[in-house]
Amino acid sequence: MRLSKFFLPVSKDVPANAEIVSHKLMLRAGMIRQNGAGIYSWLPLGFLVLKKIEQIVREEMNRAGAIEMLMPTLQQADLWRESGRYDAYGEEMLRITDRGGRDMLYGPTNEEVITDIFRAYVKSYKALPLNLYHQQWKFRDEVRPRFGVMRGREFYMKDAYSFDVDEAAARVSYQRMFAAYLNTFDRMGITAIPMQADPGPIGGDLSHEFLILATSGESAVFCDKAVLDVPPPGRDFDFDDEAALAAEMDKRTRYYAATDEKHDEAAYNAIPEASRVEARGIEVGHIFYFGTKYSDPMKAEVQTADGNLAEIHGGSYGIGVSRLVGAIIEASHDENGIIWPDNVAPFHVGIISMKPDDAACAAVADAAYAKLTTAGKDVLYDETSDRAGPKFGRMELIGLPWQITIGPRGVKEGKVELKRRATGEKQDLTLDAAIAKITGA
Ligand code: 5CA
User: Fold this and answer.
1) Rounded to the nearest whole angstrom, what is the distance from the C-alpha of residue 328 to the centroid of ligand 1?
2) Which atom of ligand 1 is nearest to the CA of 287?
3) Which of 36, 180, 188, 299 has its CA 20 to 30 A from that of 15?
4) Residue 28 and residue 49: Cα distance in Å, rounded?
């Protein structure tokens, strides 16, 4: 993408209500535009990152055997009356009436809709386990939308729903999502710590929140440092291996990790002092096992192996896809701007052409752009005639993992400057050597 043909409205001014660094940086980098309280447009740079995160979530859900689909944003109130949640959900639910006088709502989550789909088609245990997911906009009329996309009213969520014939099978489905989440967040360059969460009315031990550590986090977090060092299951992990699934969960849950809501001072104090971590965290995912909470009132039953009917055991698994854009920035930035982890960066490389009106300089910069694009890299090519200061400042702000600066002096010596955004490390290299470094060749 040539910068002169892109839409990148960077700005120095941020509104006073932008309290935290990710919100400020997203506004300054021209990633989002507020349209109303907690409601945002995703400008091109922000949209690229949102799509990268969405794609990682998709690949890791698919790898774990979940199947993608799409449900609508608008739902029928009658389904929520069946589950009993229509009145219980309260003011967070945006309620709408259509021209026929029917009560509708903008979905805050999709347990009812998916249970309705399930019961219409699935009649036998033989079709289980089944895990269906989608990535779709949600609306929750939060009392206090704030921190930009981190606590929005309209936000983008991945929500998966598992269906099993009994609790033991549902536990395996839960562990499968638990393991998939670890790989998902790892690919985004962040460490998300699973913490026991309040399982709600069902009880049991099966609800976890996944939090990343960041000073601006809304929750206080207490954990054993060791939990941060457990490696993710990895690409070759076998999601059908039930012993391995249980082990992945056990490897982490054996260490203390809790938010303030579940904090147990005595258990925390039992950790060796040097290993105690007291920090703040952002919830980027939340998984639940809820048994027959929806299948019971909504009559989602299957025939079991012995010919009886059984209510299915369900779980739901959320990831805050739009929240992650802000959360990753909270975890990865410096005083000059964003530092994108490689896999979620809107472009892999930024090329700064220092003198686009100098023929030799422009030729090298054009060649760099062509070669990197051919090598499959997403490139933002700054061939504008802006001054050096603003060019560098903008490139630092938007935080692409690699920068190549091409100026007349270097070109004379056959060199370009390659900079790694995360470390600030700079090297003068031939163009081909710089490209080889970026492409890992
Ligand atoms: N039905 C379940 C699982 S699908 C559910 O809705 N869980 S949730 O309420 O915890 O939401 C899932 C994830 O969405 C959260 O972990 C969080 O990362 C994200 N999320 C929730 N509320 C907001 C919000 N107001 N703004 C941005 N992201 C949010």
Assistant:
1) 16
2) 3
3) 188
4) 15
